[in-house]
Design goal:
Blueprint: H1 2-17, H2 22-44, H3 48-62, H4 69-73, H5 75-108, H6 112-133
Helix pairs in contact: 2-3, 3-5, 5-6
The chain binds heme C.
Length: 136
């Protein structure tokens, strides 16, 4: 009886220890790509609600982005590398969040030029990470 109770507990603990998996990150990435599309469509249709919605999803999702567990657990070889990558990741995340806020603020007051500029800054940040540390 005791053993039967223990098994689900162990499973629950194991899955909790696996905080951020590759499938989670891929889903987050796809959500951010969709959010960027929605923002762009909002620009083209001059639709503030779409822009706002995309900005919201982007801001909520970017906070999740980090190395996945298998990368973090590979301490022997990757510790230094991951530390460097994490510093860069945190910088990029801050920038993306800041620029996302800019998009909404600028677009709201009718400054589409600045909103678009903030948008392209975000694209640059996405690509910066993809080029440099996509293979964490
Ligand atoms: C801190 C690094 C980092 C940042 C910032 C980042 N990405 Fe990614 N991206 C990755 C990594 C790593 C993968 C590979 C995911 C995997 O297979 O584990 C990826 C994969 C993707 C994919 C492919 C997902 C799939 O279906 O395989 C898309 C789309 C994507 N990113 C979009 C974005 C967008 C849009 C942004 C900016 C808003 C962004 N990424 C910012 C690291 C980053």
């Amino acid at each position: 009886m005791k053993r039967l109770l223990l098994i689900p507990m162990v499973i629950a603990t194991l899955s909790y220890a696996e905080g951020y998996k590759q499938v989670d990150r891929i889903l987050d990435m796809q959500n951010m790509a969709k959010a960027m599309e929605e923002i762009q469509t909002g620009f083209f249709y001059n639709n503030l609600d779409m822009v706002k919605d995309g900005v919201k999803v982007l801001k909520e999702t970017i906070v999740n982005i980090r190395p996945i567990d298998s990368e973090v657990n590979n301490k022997d070889i990757y510790e230094k590398w991951i530390n460097n990558s994490l510093k860069m990741t945190n910088k990029i995340k801050k920038k993306i969040t800041r620029k996302a806020v800019d998009i909404e603020d600028r677009f709201k007051v009718g400054d589409a030029v600045q909103a678009l500029q903030a948008y392209s800054k975000i694209t640059q940040q996405c690509m910066k990470c993809h080029i440099q540390i996509r293979k964490w």
